[in-house]
Amino acid sequence: MNQSPTPFRQQESDPRWQTACLLRRVFANASRRFRSVERRVGAGAAAVRVLAEIDAYPNCRVGDVAASLSLNPSTVSNLVRDLQQKGWVTKARPADDQRTVRLRATAKGRSALAKAGEDVRYFAVLTRKLRREDAMRVLEGLRILAQHL
Question: What is the torsion angle, in degrees rounded to the nearest 10, for the CA atoms of residue 80, residue 90, residue 45 and residue 52?
Answer without folding.
Answer: 120
